[in-house]
Amino acid sequence: MIAARCGLDLPSAQAAESAALEETSLNLYVAVRTDGRVVATLPRTEMGQGITTAVAMLVAEELDTGLDAVDVSTADADPRWLIQLTGLSSTMRYLAGPLRAAAAEARARLVTAAAHRWRVLALTLTTAQGEVRAPDGRRLGYGELAEDAARVLLPEVSPLPKPPAEYTVVGQPTGRVDARAIVTGEARYTLDLDIPGAVPTVVARPPTLRGTVQSFNASTARAMPGVVGVVQLPSGVAVAARTFAQAFAARDALQVTWAPGPASHLSDADIRVRLRDAIGPRPLPPLLTTRVVEGRFDFPYLAHAPMETQSCVARVTGDVAEVWSGVQDPKFARSQVATALGWALTPQRVTVHPIRAGGGFGRRFFTEAAVEAALISRALGQPVKLMWSRNDDMRHGHYRPASHHRILASLGPGGSILGWHHRAAIPTVDFPHGFGDLLTSLLGQVLPNVTSAVFFALTQHVPYQFGWVAQELAEVPLPIPTASFRSVFTSQVGVANEVFVDQLARELQRDPVELRRSRLTSRRLKAVLDRVVQEGAWGRALPPGVAQGVAVLEEWDSAIAHLVEVDVTGGTPRVLRVVIAADVGLPINPKGIEAQLQGAALDAMSTTLSAGLHIDAGAVREGSFADYRWLRMKHAPASIQVHLVRSDDRVGGVGELGYPSAAAALTNAIARATGAMPTRFPILDEGA
């Protein structure tokens, strides 16, 4: 069987060379070319998180071949893959086992094929450096054996993966296999693709969220140099031209009358009132309660703000469509494009090629760019290359919702903790993509509030013995588009919990580390907490205005602790040092894990200190990084240490793990340094 190549369109010379080298598919995940190169299929999207490198390492490990001999190809939207959703920190958790099994089976087939050719016992053969080797010195490369291996019905050696104790590639700190391509510009993102005839396209969008076109006059725009066409969309008015500069100029020349969006009656103050009102009255405390400690917290809307804005290349011809985009769920993207084109019952008419993306964080679950590009392509009768501007991306996205939280701790005689009650008022989080499968996607579209509530119940827990514990979600219907954000509900609920643990420690006059140790129910959390306390020298004497904070989190089959050291003597908090300890089970690539956790810590610092959105009469105020105050390089601490604590060989999630406890540890450090606990974020909100 010769496998078709997936992923990016290749330059013509490279495509010709590739076509000359047949790929023999040994299973759904692994193919071997006649030149001996191994092609691993990745049914997820590389968005900078390093999964391409991790996949290559797993395959190279099990096949006993060099890492530089493995190519990773992204799979198109395909029903053979049950789930293609890139999110929930699930990629390596779900794929590591099947990838190891597939590569191990491929190795067993290659060995068996060599044994048949040499007429020797398969058990006498070994593999190394992309070859099968016999005791007498004979060698056969994998490429020479690929076709015979594909015909093997039953391998004659064990097809089981290696035990982790034998790993020589997995677990070693490894630079990204695509690093050179990224820094030299060879790596190709959506707007880098050269699809013949694709015309640059931009869209004029309303001033308010989900506003619509009442009327427009495009006569001036149509007459401008290079303009190919103007197309009205449900979301605005598209302009296609020979260059992006011409398209932007013509877009700005459009005369559009806009109808306001459904949130035009809402501003920040209105939203805060709605959220606070949803909290409701206090519940009755448990029996024997002597006093109740209360904490209140407010979190803002957040934009995902990936470095690459939304973009898509689309080609609609007759009754078929083809789209290229950095989507987090290609099967959902296919169904959305098919529905928009009127092909809801025949989504197979749409081919979706997931492209390397410049960040996602939950934003790329939503497929507006793909839908718009397909509609524009059909209207113009030619391919289009659609780009969202940074302003489009910030002011017309899906956002981490704002929220208000009330946490109550019921204290009894002798400082005992009898109960913990957390009620979170949060606008419904949109999950139209579900959890990557058809059933939950349908549920997410038909009953979004139910899907949101179920996800909350499945993911939120308190890892402490705090008596009777309850966490409740009060969903507040607001017409502002939402999306999951790094760690979803935990980015608010988990942060509030860990900050309130410190408040509780102050009320009980106990050390916050000691209180956590005494109440934690997870040995993994105790281990990572002990590690950051040790590495960060918790409790040592610090200058006035300098303090440390800690926080922990267990989620996505992983556990993590943060210690943050902050200096407030200059008036504005300055992070001096971050110490992280994480138990992610089997660390496939420790260097990649370190990069992920460092990036998440900087995200948490940004949204805790300065970055947040404001809503003014249904419009998002912030439009770029000039006013969406993400931290700059100068704000990064001098040291972000990452220590891995391994308790077992499970593969845990990493991508979302590092955000909540970093935000909470920073907040706790500021509270200890200033004597006042922050309760509203971002702390340095200049636009409130």
UniProtKB/TrEMBL annotation:
Task: Read off the InterPro entries from this record.
Answer: Ald_Oxase/Xan_DH_a/b, AldOxase/xan_DH_MoCoBD1, AldOxase/xan_DH_MoCoBD2, AldOxase/xan_DH_Mopterin-bd_sf, N-heterocyclic_Hydroxylase, OxRdtase_Mopterin-bd_su_IorB
Q: Gene3D superfamilies from the entry? A: Aldehyde oxidase/xanthine dehydrogenase, a/b hammerhead, Aldehyde oxidase/xanthine dehydrogenase, molybdopterin binding domain
Short name of any one Pfam family annotated for the protein:
MoCoBD_1
Q: Where is the Aldehyde oxidase/xanthine dehydrogenase a/b hammerhead domain?
A: 184-262
Q: What is this protein called?
A: Molybdopterin-dependent oxidoreductase
Which source organism does the UniProt entry give?
Corallococcus caeni
